[in-house]
UniProtKB/TrEMBL annotation:
Molecular functions (GO terms): ATP binding; DNA binding
Protein name: Two component, sigma54 specific, transcriptional regulator, Fis family
Domain named Sigma-54 factor interaction: residues: 142-371
Domain Response regulatory: from-to ranges: 6-120
SMART domains with a match to the protein in the record: AAA, REC
GO biological process: phosphorelay signal transduction system; regulation of DNA-templated transcription
Protein species of origin: Nitrosomonas eutropha (strain DSM 101675 / C91 / Nm57)
Keyword terms of this UniProt record: ATP-binding, DNA-binding, Nucleotide-binding, Phosphoprotein, Transcription, Transcription regulation, Two-component regulatory system
Residues recorded with modification 4-aspartylphosphate: D55
Length: 455
C-alpha cells in the first residue's frame, strides 16, 4: 500500500481548519492540523510533512512569518498560503520570495487540489522521522531520526536524479563517503561502479596515474598498461575524497577532464571519452583555499554545481543513542561479546560529549568500550577511558541562550520520545520546572510520543 502524502494545515479558525482537512482527507491525503504558527513550528521540530498550507492572517505569528521560518530552516518544504482578497498583493510578492503558491478565500476546491498535487510532485519531502514505512534501500545505511538529517536526505534524493557534480562538505568523521554512496545508489547509475579515492592518501607522483591510468613504459616501474579510476568508474560515479588536498598541477588536469569529458593516460597522446559522475568531498573551506592560492577557482565551480553540507554529530545529538546502540550491536557481534546495552550514566556521558571526531569518533569509542568490557553493560567509566578525557557536563539552563535552551529541550524530548519524567531526569530538573520550560518555549511534549526509538 502506498504511503499517503502528509500535509500540515495551519489556521487559527478551527472551523476552516476542519473544512480544509475534510476536503484534503477525502482526496487521499493525510492531514495534520495546527491552530497557530507556533504549533506548526513545534510539529516541524519532530516531523516533516510533504507540504504546508497556512492562512496568512492569524493571531500571534502570521502566515508570512511562518513561511520565513520554514524558508530559513527547511528550504525544500513547499508552502501554500491562503489569503483574503485584500492581501493578494502581499501573497503575490511572497511567491517571488519562494512561496509555492497562494489561494484566495473562498478557494475553489479543484484549484486547491491542483496546487497541492503540483507542489507535492515538485517537492517530494518525506516524513521518515516517525514513519513506519521502510526507508528506501539507498538510505538504509544512514541511521537517523534527526529532522536536520531528514532535510538533507530529501536533498540527496532530489540531487541523485540528475548528473550534476556534487561537493560534500562537513567536519572530519561526519560520513561524507556514506552520503556519496547514497547519492550513487539513489541515482540511475546505481547498477554501475562506485569508485572512491582519497586524494590526500596517495603521493602526488602516483595520483595522476591512479586517476587517469598509464601506458606500459610510461615511467620506471610501469611494466604493464594500467587503467585509471575514471575508466573503472565508467557509467557510474567517482568519489574524490579530500579534494582540497589535490596538488595544483593535478587540479588543472582534472579540470580539463571535467570540461572536455575525456582523459589522457600518462605516457600516451590518446584521449579517451568518459561518462562518469563526480562526487567530491572536503573538510576544508575551499573558498579560503582559493584565496590562499591552494585551489583553482574554475575547478571549484566545476565541482560545486550542487553543494551539500553534512551536519556534525553535535548538531544531531538526538541521533547519539541511536548510533551508539547500532554500533554496540555491530561490534558486539564482531568481537563475539555478550553486551546488552549501556548504563544510564554511560548514555548521559555520551550525550554530554562534544564529539569533535563526529561519528567516526563515536564508532571508535563504542568499539573500544566493547573490547574492554568484562560485563554485559557498558559503563560510563569505559566510555570515559575510551575517549581519553574527563567527563563533560551539560551546560546549565541559566547559562544557555534562549535558542540553545529550546534546541536542548527539543533534543531531550526526541531522545525520550516525549516521556517528561525521563526528559526531566536527563536534564537534571524536577518535573514542575521542566513543564515550565516547555511552556516557555511553547513545546508540546505529546507530539514527540510518536517517535519509536527510545533510550
Amino acid at each position: 500500500m502506498m504511503q499517503s502524502k502528509k500535509i500540515l494545515l495551519v489556521d487559527d479558525d478551527p472551523d476552516l481548519l476542519e473544512l480544509l482537512s475534510i476536503r484534503l482527507t477525502a482526496a487521499g491525503y493525510e492531514t495534520v492540523p495546527a491552530e497557530s504558527a507556533e504549533a506548526a513550528i513545534n510539529y516541524l521540530d519532530i516531523s516533516r510533512p510533504h507540504l504546508v498550507i497556512s492562512d496568512i492572517q492569524m493571531s500571534g505569528m502570521d502566515g508570512m512569518a511562518l513561511f520565513e521560518h520554514i524558508h530559513r530552516h527547511i528550504p525544500t518544504l513547499p508552502v501554500i498560503i491562503l489569503t483574503a482578497f485584500g492581501t493578494i498583493p502581499d501573497a503575490v510578492a511572497a511567491t517571488q520570495r519562494g512561496i509555492f503558491g497562494y489561494l484566495t478565500k473562498p478557494y475553489n476546491p479543484k484549484i486547491l487540489l491542483s496546487q497541492v498535487e503540483r507542489a507535492i510532485d515538485l517537492a517530494p519531502a518525506v516524513d521518515t522521522i516517525s514513519s513506519k514505512v521502510p526507508a528506501p534501500t539507498w538510505r538504509k545505511a544512514i541511521i537517523t531520526r534527526s529532522a536536520l538529517m531528514e532535510d538533507l536526505l530529501a536533498k540527496v534524493d532530489r540531487v541523485a536524479q540528475g548528473n550534476a557534480s556534487v561537493l560534500l562538505s562537513g567536519e572530519s568523521g561526519v560520513g561524507k563517503e556514506l552520503f556519496a554512496r547514497a547519492i550513487h545508489q539513489a541515482s540511475k547509475r546505481c547498477e554501475q561502479p562506485f569508485i572512491t579515492i582519497n586524494c590526500a592518501a596517495i603521493p602526488e607522483q602516483l595520483l595522476e596515474s591512479e586517476l587517469f591510468g598509464h601506458a606500459k613504459g610510461a615511467f620506471t616501474g610501469a611494466v604493464r598498461e594500467h587503467k585509471g579510476l575514471f575508466q573503472l568508474a565508467e557509467g557510474g560515479s567517482l568519489f574524490l575524497d579530500e579534494i582540497g588536498d589535490m596538488p595544483l598541477l593535478l587540479q588543472a588536469k582534472l579540470l580539463h577532464a571535467l570540461q572536455e569529458r575525456v582523459i589522457r593516460p600518462v605516457g600516451t597522446a590518446q584521449s579517451i571519452p568518459i561518462d562518469v559522475r563526480i562526487i567530491s568531498a572536503t573538510h576544508k573551506d575551499l573558498k579560503s583555499e582559493i584565496q590562499a592560492g591552494n585551489f583553482r577557482e574554475d575547478l571549484y565551480y566545476r565541482l560545486f554545481v550542487v553543494g551539500l553540507t553534512i551536519p556534525s554529530l553535535a548538531q544531531r545529538g538526538e541521533d547519539i543513542p541511536l548510533l551508539a546502540n547500532h554500533f554496540l550491536r555491530v561490534f558486539a557481534e564482531k568481537h563475539q561479546k555478550d553486551i546488552n546495552g549501556f548504563s544510564p550514566e554511560a548514555i548521559s556521558f555520551l550525550l554530554a560529549s562534544s564529539w569533535p571526531g563526529n561519528i567516526r569518533q563515536l564508532m571508535n569509542v563504542i568499539e573500544q568500550s566493547i573490547v574492554m568490557s568484562a560485563v554485559p553493560l557498558i559503563s560510563s567509566e569505559l566510555i570515559r577511558d575510551a575517549m581519553h578525557k574527563d567527563e563533560e557536563q551539560m551546560i546549565s539552563f541559566e547559562e544557555a541562550r534562549k535558542q540553545f535552551e529550546r534546541d536542548y529541550l527539543v533534543k531531550v524530548l526526541k531522545i525520550t520520545a516525549g516521556n517528561v519524567t525521563q526528559a526531566a531526569r536527563l536534564a537534571k530538573r524536577n518535573r514542575t520546572e521542566f513543564y515550565k520550560l516547555l511552556q516557555r518555549h511553547q513545546l508540546d511534549f505529546t507530539l514527540y510520543k510518536s517517535l519509536q526509538e527510545k533510550v
